[in-house]
Every structure is written in C-alpha cells, then in structure tokens.
C-alpha cells in the first residue's frame, strides 16, 4: 500500500496492518500460510505452462479435478505433501521446489566510506 493512502486511512480512524496481524497469526502460522500460497501459485503457473487442465493434473496425481482446484486456491484442507507431489508430477525437481520455498535473497552491498 502506498504511504499516502495508508496515512489517509489512518487519519480517518482506520487501523492498517497485515493480514497476519488481522487474523492474530503467530509468526510460524504466517510463514506456513505464505509457504502454501507460494506453492499453490507455482503449481497453477506450471500447470498452465504445460497446457494441462486441472483434470489432467488430477489424473497425474491420482486425485480429482476439484481437489486440484483447491490446491491451486491454497485451500487449508490441502496438505503441503499433496502440493509438493503435484509439483513433482509436473516435472519440478527437488531443487526447484526448494527455490519456491526459500525466502527471497537480499543482496548485500558493501559501501566504502571516507
């Protein structure tokens, strides 16, 4: 959210925070939800890139189309195990799955002073 919008909302009495704060998530719960969202998003991207329907992917993982829809939506009833199995069925290597899971790298820059 832009800083100017946040300030306008706060000036009108609104409290601005993250989804995790709103739902009173612990840091661990927030990290778990973020992980599932990342995996679900990549699953859909890879399925579409391979030009498969949800039904096609369901056959690959021996599941149903509705289950695949729930997987891609990040439904809480879907296990991490099933998300990872589906990614592997689409051809993802364990290294690619690890890249999805890994937090983004932040470049460190050393500046010379003086």
Write up this protein:
The protein starts with a helix and ends in a 13-residue tail after the last helix. The radius of gyration is 19 Å and the shape is elongated. The protein is mainly α. The longest helix has 23 residues, at 27-49. It has 7 helices and no strands. Helix 4 packs across helix 5. Helix content is 61%, strand content 0%.
Task: Pick out its properties.
114 residues; 61% helix
SSE layout:
Layout lengths: L2 H9 L7 H4 L4 H23 L4 H7 L4 H9 L6 H10 L4 H8 L13
Summarize, please.
The chain is mainly α and 114 residues long.
As a whole number of angstroms, the C-alpha radius of gyration is 19 Å
Percent of residues in β-strands: under 5%
Task: Indicate the low-confidence ranges by residue numbers.
Answer: none
> How far is the first residue's CA from the last residue's CA?
37 Å
List SSEs in N-to-C order.
Answer: HHHHHHH
